[in-house]
């Protein structure tokens, strides 16, 4: 069996800690079994490894999140970079093409797809190992995983099964209901409906045939060539709801979709993370502060306060999910980004009187790590070394810089930075449109 792990996200649900680069799955907010804090992606990779499935896993994510994904999942899991965000159907189709063409996976092999923010006990992941047998014995084209609802939620999809007849392993599916109101959810639960865990399994040949029937390619390069012209569509709508022969396996353990502050805060080890305090009469309130400024919460209950360089959220927990809609039309430049070589923070940003955008960044590189060898088509950079030693390769010439040294990198100049020691630098970026992606990468020269 092969696992396709859907990663990434827009970074809106858990704003301001999450942004377009550091989405919710990379936030180290969950308590690990070892007592430290771990992210959603670290947790799910650990659990997949415990049941022997990590070595057969590949991850699909947007190309802007490839570096941060690699920071969290190690060096050995294939990461497929999407050139555009086009929904779960396109992501899965791209991954299926990769498995078929590049890895030469047997068409009869079972493919299992699951979202990276799946939060469940390890027994949940052991249950995935039963998918091949369920598909074989049911002769269904598609198998899903559902769990018994604990309350009538309007935030989850529901699977209405045809009640099994003498078979406890699976049931054929009668109907899908997506995020009903609470009254309808109560009615569905009375008829044995399950929450849809967002996990799908199918034989590889099923998706290859479906793609050909829909006129889609099954080659990686062909997919990449048309990505920009594709609609944003979900696998549920394009495949699951259109497949007549589908079954569901039931799961009785703990499961949750940690897609909101109210869901995630229930798993925090502490009420306060970072600099700040919550008064004793502020019940069920949480504070996460990544800023170097102290925050006090006094006499306010059911509050979620999150502060980072991207902004500050102060919300009633029941209303915090509205942040996604409120950010819909707000232009955002990520103020914090993790890289395979370290991280950077945006300290200031403005437009001067001529319309030129100016950004000042604090950049930290880990000893021995280096950026890619690249150039920017429309932006100029001025680098000042604050602490440590650096080697900067610029148009094939090597510059050795120490604390206090300054180097200008003109527009269009090939360059890369290597940290000889742990390195901190300040970078001033000048550009007419900083939101425009204009980077071109080359083979590394170190």
Instruction: Outline the low-pLDDT stretches.
Output: none
Counted by DSSP, the helix tally is 11
CATH topology of the largest domain: Spore Coat Polysaccharide Biosynthesis Protein SpsA, Chain A
* Mean pLDDT value: 92
CATH architecture identity of the largest domain: Alpha-Beta Complex
Task: Tell me the major beta sheet.
Answer: 6 strands, antiparallel
User: What's the overall geometry?
Assistant: globular
CATH first level of the largest domain = Alpha Beta
Helix content: 10-25%
- Report the count of strand segments: 30
How would you sum up this structure, described in words?
The two termini are 38 Å apart. The protein has three domains: 260 residues, Spore Coat Polysaccharide Biosynthesis Protein SpsA, Chain A (Alpha-Beta Complex); 57 residues, no CATH class; 102 residues, Jelly Rolls (Sandwich), CATH 2.60.120.10. The protein is α+β, with helices and mostly antiparallel strands and 446 residues long. A hairpin with a 2-residue loop joins strand 18 and strand 19.
Spell out the key features of this protein.
446 residues; alpha+beta; Spore Coat Polysaccharide Biosynthesis Protein SpsA, Chain A; Jelly Rolls; 3 domains; six-stranded antiparallel beta sheet; five-stranded mixed β-barrel; 11 helices; globular
List the helices and strands and how they pair.
Layout: E1 2-6, E2 30-31, E3 37-38, H1 40-50, E4 57-62, H2 66-73, E5 79-82, H3 87-101, E6 110-115, E7 118-120, H4 122-127, H5 131-138, E8 142-147, E9 157-161, E10 171-178, H6 182-190, E11 194-203, H7 204-213, H8 220-226, H9 235-238, E12 246-251, E13 255-257, H10 261-265, E14 272-273, E15 276-278, E16 286-289, E17 295-297, E18 303-308, E19 311-316, H11 323-326, E20 336-339, E21 342-351, E22 357-365, E23 373-376, E24 379-387, E25 390-394, E26 397-401, E27 406-409, E28 415-419, E29 423-431, E30 439-442
Parallel strand pairs: 1-4, 1-6, 4-5, 8-12, 14-16, 15-17, 16-18
Antiparallel strand pairs: 2-3, 6-11, 7-13, 8-11, 9-10, 9-11, 10-12, 18-19, 20-21, 21-22, 22-29, 23-30, 24-27, 24-29, 25-26, 25-28
Helix pairs in contact: 3-7
């Amino acid at each position: 069996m092969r696992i396709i792990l859907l990663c990434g996200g827009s970074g809106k649900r858990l704003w301001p800690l999450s942004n377009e680069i550091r989405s919710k799955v990379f936030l180290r907010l969950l308590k690990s079994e070892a007592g430290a804090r771990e992210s959603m992606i670290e947790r799910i990779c650990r659990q997949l490894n415990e049941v022997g499935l990590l070595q057969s896993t590949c991850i699909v994510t947007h190309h802007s999140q490839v570096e941060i994904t690699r920071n969290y999942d190690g060096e050995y899991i294939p990461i497929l970079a999407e050139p555009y965000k086009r929904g779960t159907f396109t992501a899965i189709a791209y991954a299926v093409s990769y498995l078929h063409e590049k890895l030469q996976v047997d068409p009869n092999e079972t493919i299992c797809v699951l979202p990276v923010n799946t939060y469940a006990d390890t027994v949940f992941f052991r249950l995935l190992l039963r998918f091949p047998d369920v598909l074989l014995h049911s002769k269904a084209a598609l198998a899903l995983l559902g769990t018994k609802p604990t309350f009538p939620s309007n935030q989850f999809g529901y699977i209405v099964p045809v009640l099994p007849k003498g078979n406890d392993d699976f049931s054929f599916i009668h109907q899908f209901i997506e995020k009903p109101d609470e009254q309808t959810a109560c009615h569905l639960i009375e008829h044995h409906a399950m929450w849809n865990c967002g996990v799908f399994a199918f034989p590889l040949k099923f998706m290859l045939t479906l793609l050909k029937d829909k006129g889609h390619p099954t080659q990686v390069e062909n997919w990449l060539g048309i990505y920009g012209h594709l609609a944003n569509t979900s696998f549920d709508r394009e495949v699951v709801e259109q497949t007549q022969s589908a079954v569901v396996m039931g799961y009785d353990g703990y499961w949750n979709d940690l897609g909101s502050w109210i869901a995630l805060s229930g798993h925090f080890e502490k009420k306060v993370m970072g600099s700040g305090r919550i008064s004793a009469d502020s019940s069920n309130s949480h504070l996460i502060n990544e800023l170097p400024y102290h925050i006090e919460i006094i006499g306010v209950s059911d509050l979620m306060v999150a502060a980072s360089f991207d902004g500050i959220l102060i919300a009633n927990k029941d209303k915090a999910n509205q942040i996604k809609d409120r950010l819909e039309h707000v232009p955002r430049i990520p103020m914090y980004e993790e890289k395979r070589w370290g991280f950077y923070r945006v300290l200031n940003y403005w437009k001067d009187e001529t319309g030129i955008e100016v950004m000042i960044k604090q950049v930290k590189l880990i000893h021995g790590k280096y950026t890619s060898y690249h150039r920017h088509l429309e932006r100029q950079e001025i680098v000042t070394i604050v602490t440590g030693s650096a080697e900067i390769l610029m148009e094939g010439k090597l510059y050795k810089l120490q604390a206090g040294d300054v180097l200008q990198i003109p527009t269009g100049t090939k360059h890369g930075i290597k940290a000889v020691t742990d390195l901190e630098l300040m970078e001033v970026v000048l550009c007419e449109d900083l939101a425009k992606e204009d980077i071109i990468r080359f083979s590394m020269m170190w």
